[in-house]
């Protein structure tokens, strides 16, 4: 049920939510016994718990309350009192994508572009340049975000592009190793590696994808170090645009992790249109990366490009201002 909600990726686990709710209720009145149960279906314990006497609903969910009583009646259970509460209007709306009433989805939208997790110390890195690892789902808008950060004053290294360059031609460092491991069938008529053929092969097989990454990423690391060294002469903030930041175990190479998330259906649709892929091909590529929940656990700042450009700009500007105020100017 959670996956149908706006920015469900930012919803805390049931255990954390129950713990916080119990602490809140106990603070209000510690003498009441609270029984808090996770809900696995639209009706929850209301259609099985014979001890319940009432259910509280909003104006939007009143039909659900009546439906619960219909189900209880069919089971010869007592009817619940249906108490309707009126939701307050939200006087802090920033965009029209937010709901008019106070809602958790609007609060999640407002988290975008803010520091949601303090960065871990990186004693292995110099304080300048301050390095941001921009990662995220495939087709989630990372390049759009990195371009905005470039306009705001960041140096940008497209690590994914450098990864492609390691096998672009027979003279590049990863070329021979890839052909030796994956065969001549990945070559095009001109003798170069066909990225589409290689992609189709590795995204069909997780072991092959891991093998390809083990060939490419040590070579990419050297190219990135060279790029960062050059850019550090001009920029105090450098953004590494890298889809496989976590998969490549590069967390120690960045001061902060900035993550772009996107609804899976939208990501698949974008990938189909961008790369001219079939539905199943696009789905496999989206699913080949680390689960989005794991990525969220590492993220200091989160973006979402689901809406129009203006809303994405607001997120990026908010993150940039936070970065300058809290980290760059102090270093």
Give the SSE map:
Elements: H1 14-28, E1 54-58, H2 62-74, E2 81-85, H3 104-111, E3 130-136, H4 142-152, E4 155-158, H5 159-165, H6 175-182, H7 195-202, H8 206-231, E5 237-241, E6 256-261, H9 264-275, H10 279-287, H11 292-298, E7 301-304, H12 309-328
Summarize this structure briefly:
The protein is an alpha/beta fold and 331 residues long.
Task: Give structural notes.
- The chain is an alpha/beta fold and 331 residues long.
- The chain folds into 2 domains: 109 residues, Rossmann fold (3-Layer(aba) Sandwich); 216 residues, 3-Layer(aba) Sandwich (Rossmann fold).
- The strands form 2 sheets. It has a 5-stranded parallel beta sheet, with helices on both faces. Strands 1-2 form a two-stranded parallel sheet.
- Helix 2 links the parallel strand 1 and strand 2.
- It is globular, with a radius of gyration of 25 Å.
- It starts with 13 loop residues before the first helix and ends with a helix.
- The mean pLDDT is 92.
Q: Gap between N and C termini, in Å?
A: 44 Å
Q: In the CATH hierarchy, what is the superfamily of the largest domain?
A: P-loop containing nucleotide triphosphate hydrolases
Main beta sheet strand tally, sense and closure: 5 strands, parallel
Question: For the CA atoms, what is the radius of gyration?
Answer: 25 Å
Q: Which CATH class of the largest domain applies here?
A: Alpha Beta
Pattern of helices and strands: HEHEHEHEHHHHEEHHHEH
The CATH architecture term of the largest domain is 3-Layer(aba) Sandwich
Q: What's the total number of strands?
A: 7
Q: On the 0-100 scale, what is the average pLDDT?
A: 92
The parts where pLDDT drops under 50 for at least 5 residues are none
């Amino acid at each position: 049920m959670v996956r149908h909600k706006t920015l469900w990726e930012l919803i805390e686990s049931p255990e954390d939510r129950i713990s916080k709710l119990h602490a809140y209720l106990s603070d209000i009145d510690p003498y009441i016994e609270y029984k808090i149960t996770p809900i696995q279906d639209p009706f929850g314990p209301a259609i099985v718990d014979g001890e319940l006497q009432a259910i509280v609903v909003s104006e939007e969910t009143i039909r659900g309350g009546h439906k619960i009583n219909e189900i209880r009646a069919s089971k010869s259970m007592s009817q619940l009192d249906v108490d309707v509460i009126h939701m307050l209007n939200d006087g802090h709306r920033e965009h029209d994508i937010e709901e008019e009433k106070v809602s958790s989805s609007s609060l999640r939208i407002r988290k975008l572009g803010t520091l949601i997790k303090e960065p871990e110390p990186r004693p292995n890195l110099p304080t300048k340049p301050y390095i941001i690892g921009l990662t995220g789902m495939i087709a989630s808008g990372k390049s759009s975000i990195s371009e905005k950060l470039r306009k705001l004053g960041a140096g940008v290294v497209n690590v994914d592009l450098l990864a492609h360059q390691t096998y672009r031609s027979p003279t590049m460092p990863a070329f021979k190793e890839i052909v030796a491991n994956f065969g001549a069938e990945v070559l095009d008529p001109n003798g170069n590696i066909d990225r589409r053929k290689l992609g189709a092969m590795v995204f069909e097989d997780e072991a092959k994808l891991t093998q390809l990454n083990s060939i490419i990423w040590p070579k990419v690391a050297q190219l990135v170090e060279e790029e960062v060294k050059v850019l550090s002469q001009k920029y105090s903030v450098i953004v590494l645009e890298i889809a496989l930041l976590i998969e490549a175990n590069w967390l120690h190479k960045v001061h902060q992790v900035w993550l772009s998330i996107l609804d899976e259906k939208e990501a698949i649709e974008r990938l189909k249109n961008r790369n001219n892929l079939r539905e199943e091909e696009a789905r496999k590529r989206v699913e080949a990366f680390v689960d989005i929940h794991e990525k969220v656990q590492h993220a200091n700042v989160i973006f979402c490009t689901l809406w129009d450009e203006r809303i994405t700009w607001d997120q990026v500007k908010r993150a940039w201002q936070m970065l300058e105020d809290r980290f760059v100017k102090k270093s």
